[in-house]
Amino acid sequence: MKLSISLALVVAFTSTTVFVHGGVTTYIIDNTSYPGYVWYDPLDGQKDLIQRTWDQNPHTDPLSSNLTCNYHGTPVPGAFHAPVRAGSTIRTSWNQNSFGWVHTVGPVIAYLASCPGGDCSTIANIADISWFKIAEEGLRKGFALGGPRGLNTRTDYWDVVVPLGLKPGKYMVRHEIINLELAPVLFYPNCAQLEVQGEGESFPADNFLVKFPGAYSTSDPGIAISGKVKQDKFTKNYTVPGPKVWTG
Ligand SMILES: [Cu+2]
After folding, report:
1. pLDDT tens, 120-164?
2. How far is the CA of 191 from the centre of ligand 1 (A)?
3. In angstroms, rounded to a whole number, what is the distance separating the alpha carbons of residues 88 and 50?
4. How many other C-beta atoms lie within 10 A of the C-beta of residue 209?
5. 3 CA to middle of ligand 1, Å?
6. What separation in Å is there between the alpha carbon of 44 and the centre of ligand 1?
7. Which residues on adjacent β-strands are paired with residue 112?
8. Residues of the chain with pLDDT under 50
9. How far away, in angstroms, is 6 Cα from ligand 1 center?
10. How far is the CA of 186 from the centre of ligand 1 (A)?
11. What is the CA radius of gyration of the chain?
12. From ligand 1's centre to the CA of 178, what distance in Å?
């Protein structure tokens, strides 16, 4: 028993040194689990995923092309779209090797973008697609640092509802964690491909739509606060960056 605990600790500490950052590792959609791209494995051999490629390292420049869907952010061979009914929940997990998310200060945000041509895999330039925000949590009024959820704890998972009224089609989903603990700010975006099904007929108006890169600037209050968020008076009035949430 003692030996196995020691071994577990060795594995644990080894893992923390490797997994200092991270991203979305699994999507659970309508009771189906979709494994994510494994950033520490070779790209060769990874296929048939809904998630686009990424790297564990964060991105600091809001104007970088990495802000769209992380480093490379390309579909793997055999990439497909996970079916999801409008109104259903998408559960994303940041778990890796039994560790949850390692950063505890910052918002978690989810966006959707309609894929032109009806196939998210064949978009020539993902910087061109238009995103709308469907959920945001964390560092808002009423959330204190160290609170129960909203990325103030180690986030194992986060649930987001696909707006019930959203019209069917192929969509990219973009989850993002922003680490505000230090300056510069650290962005962790991840993208995956969805096929939204249902009878919805709604789509957000232009004032809800943004581009990545383009949606954020280092002077946005919710980003400029990076490195200073432990001053409680600021965090209680935190403004999540990006457009208003569209609920359908
Ligand atoms: Cu990190």
Report:
1. 999 999 999 999 999 988 765 444 333 344 443 445 678 899 999
2. 18
3. 17
4. 19
5. 30
6. 25
7. 132, 173
8. 1-17, 141-154, 232-233
9. 26
10. 8
11. 18
12. 10
